[in-house]
Amino acid sequence: MPPVAPSEFPPPFDPADVIVAPSDPEDERIEVGVAIVGGGPAGLACANKLMQLLEDEPELAEQLGEVPVAVIEKGKVPGAHLLSGANMRPSAMRELFPDLDPAEWPVYQEVTKDAVYFLTSKAAFPVKPMPPNFRNHGNYVTSVSKLGRFLAEKAEEAGAYILAETAADKLLVSDRIVRGVRSGDRGRGKDGEELANFEPGNDVIAKATVLAEGTIGHLTYAAYDYFDMGGEDPQSWELGVKEIWEVSEPLDRVIHTLGWPLRWSGKHAEAGGSFIYPMGEDKVCLGLVVGLEYTDATFSVHDALQQFKTHPFIKKILAGGKRVAWGAKTIPSGGYWSLPKRFSTPGMVVAGDAAGMVNIAELKGVHYAMHAGMYAAEAIVDALKQDSVNFEAYDAKVRGSEIEKDLYRSRNMRQPLSKGLLVGGLVGNSLVMTKGAFPGGHWEVEDEAEVEMSIGKAGDRYPEPDNELTFNKLDSVFLSGNATRDDAPNHVRIQTRVPREIAQTWVSMCPAQVYEIPEEQLEGGAAEVDVHVTASNCVQCGAITAKGGRLTLPEGGDGPLYQET
Ligand SMILES: Cc1cc2nc3c(=O)[nH]c(=O)nc-3n(C[C@H](O)[C@H](O)[C@H](O)COP(=O)(O)OP(=O)(O)OC[C@H]3O[C@@H](n4cnc5c(N)ncnc54)[C@H](O)[C@@H]3O)c2cc1C
Ligand code: SF4
User: Fold this and answer.
1) What CA–CA distance (Å, rounded) separates 333 from 357?
2) Three-state secondary structure call for residue 81
3) How many angstroms separate the alpha carbon of residue 535 from the centre of ligand 2?
4) How far apart are CA 504 and CA 318, in angstroms?
5) Rounded to whole angstroms, what are the CA distances from 520 to 298, 524, 530?
6) At residue 394, does pLDDT exceed 90?
7) CATH code at position 143
8) What angle do CA 78, 483, 189 make, to 5 degrees?
9) Which of 129, 172, 355, 534 has the fewest Cβ atoms surrounding its Cβ within 10 A?
10) What distance in Å separates the CA atoms of residue 531 and residue 540, rounded to the nearest whole number?
11) Cα–Cα dist 71/44, whole Å
């Protein structure tokens, strides 16, 4: 079969449906001062900073009403949908809580030793000197899921409201000014019918709305279309699958690996690598992060991670251990060229991963998200004091900050990696050595849905799960604490009859086994096949949006219940 691109089979989804005018009668609307969508590092840093600033602005605090700051989070609790490495640069924590000692932060340890290895199928070769983008001395290993719980507690103590189990489903706009969000309905059946426990969503009206939705934001991308905020290049993403292991021997360093089991050649374009971080004395986390521009429809990040664990070097780290957690999430990787044109529009700002504020060469986003959240808080308070909903000062703050400077320095680092490790390595090194000056120009970020897919052989290389070292997708989803009703409406939009290459791409890519091709169609070698969707398995990693479908929001509270990812 000739290769075919997922973008040729666009999902049945119209972003315009996400933008609506407020519709609840005025006396039924929920009024808040600032509505923050997303209880991740960006949204929660924003909430904390707002409460700190409002302490010195009693008049404004009074005007913002009974609920000056509300954080709307779709996870069951704050942190439930958060997953990261998470090797954190401490600058934002220091700035947000200057009086807190790092010993009081939710972290495992400061990084004092780190190493990079190049793997072949049997051996691990230390990469020396260490590429500067992998240097992590002075950073802290944390769990972003725990960090989210910590930041939410701090924000609540300071007077913010955390509305967990609530999906912000629509963006409320009138006169081209963002007026807040509408929460999703609860209690609908498979065909959208109202069940006995049905509760309609509400208009949440706010003077300022902060979109801090993280990767592949539902409202964010609709807003980019509506307000024409999209960047010069499309956004691109990498998918990360992560496990946490209890281990018998503590790991004494932060490790990154390149090479095996990924096929870095231009043909396969499996560009990525692994991270292995110590979490105190008795745990380690490890994950594989791979760009979604790969071309083999049978490639699966989850299964490649299982294969990765069979390497002698990795096996030794995990020996005698037990897997205790699993999760998956995408990370924006387009960097500088994919940043939106503007970070604000009247009534609204966008912060963190939602705006693509990730330095993928360093695998860092947590501190950028937090800094952006704090800038947003400052700009919003300054504007609201003048009775204005023009938040352009936030754009200026981001543009002049380390966020933009760092992303600019690494602007051409990620794109050449899809041409193979040699080209990518050479370009990357010269960019690091010249602090981003050479090679200059603009290396375009490609739209991953436009990459042509063909059925290759990656799938033949994955190990059979032995339930000790290697595991299948369904058992892994179970470990994520996923709890989505089986009779909930399907929140994953795809075309359900497509060429086999496209169907296989979705089947293999999805870490949660949401998609299946009927056995008889597979065996019969049909060129076009049906795709069955078990949406209740979905852990909302977002990858389907990058590869030709669209993830929309299930009911608030559905999805994973990550504890320590
Ligand atoms: C595998 C992996 C490894 C990583 N490793 C590192 C690392 O080592 N160091 C580092 O600094 N960074 C790392 N990152 C990146 C880092 O995790 C992110 O940059 C950071 O979490 C972004 O924070 P955020 O607040 O913007 O978004 P998120 O952390 O994604 O938080 C967004 C929140 O918004 C909620 N939400 C989204 N939409 C809605 C809605 N419509 N309604 C209600 N709630 C909503 C989500 O449930 C979520 O809780 C990694 C990322 C991944 C995936
Ligand atoms: S269905 Fe859910 S878990 Fe699977 S790829 Fe899509 S977003 Fe990720």
Assistant:
1) 9
2) coil
3) 8
4) 31
5) 18, 6, 11
6) yes
7) 3.50.50.60
8) 110
9) 129
10) 18
11) 7
Q: Is residue 311 situated within a structural domain?
A: yes
**What is the domain count for the chain?**
1
Contacts of 362 by beta carbon, 8 Å cutoff, 6+ apart: 133, 134, 406, 410
- Does residue 2 form part of some domain? no
E strand or H helix at 371, and its extent? helix 366-385
Q: What mean pLDDT comes out for the span 118-137?
A: 93
- Is the Cβ atom of 514 under 6 angstroms away from ligand 2? yes
Distance 79 CA to ligand 1 centre (A): 10
Asked, for residue 508, whether it belongs to a domain, the answer is no
Q: Which residues contact 549 (CB under 8 A, 6 or more apart)?
A: 6, 11, 492, 493, 494, 506
Report the relative pairing of strands 161-163 and 69-72 from DSSP bridges: parallel
Residue 217's φ and ψ, nearest 5 degrees, are -70, 135
- The residue whose CA is least distant from atom 2 of ligand 2 is 538
Summarize pLDDT for 421-466 with one digit per residue, the tens: 666 777 777 777 777 777 778 888 889 999 999 999 999 999 999 9
For β-strands 30-37 and 203-211, DSSP reports them as parallel
Amino acid at 345: T
User: Which residues lie below 8 Å from residue 468, measured CB to CB, with a gap of 6+?
Assistant: none
- Hey, which of 540, 545, 550, 553 would you mutate to test ligand 2's pocket, going by the most ligand atoms within 8 Å of its Cβ? 540
CB 457 within 8 A of CB 514: no
Question: What tokens appear for 14 in the block?
Answer: 């119209």
What is the phi/psi pair of residue 243, to 5°? Answer: -130, 155
Report the candidate in 525, 449, 455 with the shortest Cα–Cα distance to residue 494. 449
Q: Is 525 a domain residue?
A: no
How far apart are the C-alpha atoms of 422 and 280, rounded to whole Å? 36
Residue 225's domain comprises 12-480
Output the pLDDT for position 136.
95
With tokens 């081209």, the residue in question is 176
pTM listed for this prediction: 0.97
